[in-house]
């Protein structure tokens, strides 16, 4: 096994799960994260885990860590899935998505922040904070990450770009073939005390308002059992709007707090009394904007393989929230690449090529499914892969 560490850019979900796999395989690694800590910015919405995502996570974690992870997951049954007219309160005939449930006929979900902390357990000492990777350079027998301040990392055996949709590693590796497009749709994440959700009951809910002249608005929320009567527990919701409906000031998506909360309240002020507590009682400090993006809808493109560099997660396949498969696809990357590295005893020529060949199959299908779902559910515009500007 090479004594040079595997370098990982970004400390998101896919990067941290890969780090867990490397740790358990006793393969040295280092993680470079541009933020100052996990608490630097909002963690985003609650994630729904598919059967494939759960299988990938379970295949990586040791039994004890898996039990901690599984215990933290919410298991929602109740009504299952129900859709409502947000203004009238009437239930609609929208069908439950086929992939909504995963294990035991229940919807399995977990907060992104909880998932990130669990995946980081035991890997904290390998994280270097305030390290913004802007590229890489190959050495005689390795690779170095290049940082925004002009400094460079130690020599690594391999570099994995997992720093999200703005990944500089992905752009350099693919010579610009990996692209992320702005769909035009926008959203707001929010949280409220679990008591605000009591009128909904247990289940997964989609609320839709088509009365607005400039486009429809929807909310997706998961009301899980066990915590509904505890006012100290907060549940989350995700509000989205068609292009042009939600407009962050100056198109600044770093804004968190009252500005985003006020827009969410205004958009839902005429909703049915059953749903309004989600917004009237929201924790304003936690409200955050989000931009709905999507990678090349036709699938993950090919590029000339570089044996010592590859990419995982949103860096290679950004998805809309339609279908809830983005994070599930990302953890499949971690499991696949981690397994290949374990079997090879660390970096070996051919590992990245084998990973990219396998990843392109399931990731291309996932991106297309997510994009197609968003065309119908969110009213996003059609993407021109050749001529549209990228984010």
UniProtKB/TrEMBL annotation:
Residues 7-343 form the FAD-binding domain. Its cofactor is FAD. Transmembrane segments: none annotated. Keywords: FAD, Flavoprotein, Monooxygenase, Oxidoreductase, Signal. It comes from the Eukaryota. GO terms for molecular function: FAD binding; monooxygenase activity. Residues 1-19 form the signal peptide. This is FAD-binding domain-containing protein. The lineage of its organism: Eukaryota, Fungi, Dikarya, Ascomycota, Pezizomycotina.
